[in-house]
Design a protein that fits this description.
The structure is a homodimer of 117-residue chains.
Chain A: E1 5-6, H1 7-11, E2 21-26, E3 29-39, E4 50-56, E5 59-63, E6 66-70, E7 74-78, E8 84-99, E9 115-116
Parallel strand pairs in A: 2-9
Antiparallel strand pairs in A: 2-3, 3-8, 4-7, 4-8, 5-6, 5-8
Chain lengths: 117, 117
């Protein structure tokens, strides 16, 4: 029988930060949940937009043109090629969508390994 | 300045059912919110997966292999070519993602016109 993907249950199954877990696939993209706290690195993705939907907490996406802050139920798409740095003061839970195989730092050498759960 | 997309605010701006509104774009896809109540039509999309994330309410996606029911914070991806029928007993708010231009019924002749808000 088909079953839904419960994002809160998926998020409750791990605790490490900035380490996306794959929870589904959609048109060649990975659907991922991630826990964030602190500052990530400035980076960009030349080939893909970057989708962020906050599920819990508060995420600021710093952009060269200024910051955008997201609370629960708010989303933002960073266009391809645009430099950005995610920052979260409290632990924040996010739904991410990126083409399968996209390095989360923009650089395969420093990227997290994405595991399906 | 960049600004977030607040899904609840977008949903509060219209009241018609089964009429997706475009709230953003991502890698050639439309990000849409829709209000559902009652039964939609059985349909499939030959060329694309169909992404459903329930924001409020309760959605059953009937599939030939059996139904899957989603509450808030739950998602399901109907694979390309798979027949399905969304059904909601109460008014239900959903985030949808489909390639830009995808007819919501699977047939351009009967599809809703998708407006950006």
């Amino acid at each position: 029988m088909p079953s839904p993907v419960n994002l809160a249950e998926k998020l409750a199954s791990f605790s490490d930060l900035w380490s996306p877990r794959i929870v589904g696939r959609f048109n060649g993209h990975d659907l991922m949940v991630v826990k964030a706290r602190g500052s990530f690195v400035w980076h960009s993705h030349a080939e893909t937009d970057d989708f962020f939907l906050v599920l819990k907490g508060r995420l600021t996406i710093e952009l060269r043109e200024g910051p955008v802050t997201l609370g629960p139920g708010e989303l933002y798409v960073v266009p391809a090629g645009v430099e950005h740095r995610p920052v979260a003061e409290e632990e924040t839970h996010i739904l991410l969508i990126e083409p399968a195989g996209t390095p989360n730092t923009g650089d395969p050498a420093t990227a997290a390994v994405k595991v399906a759960i």
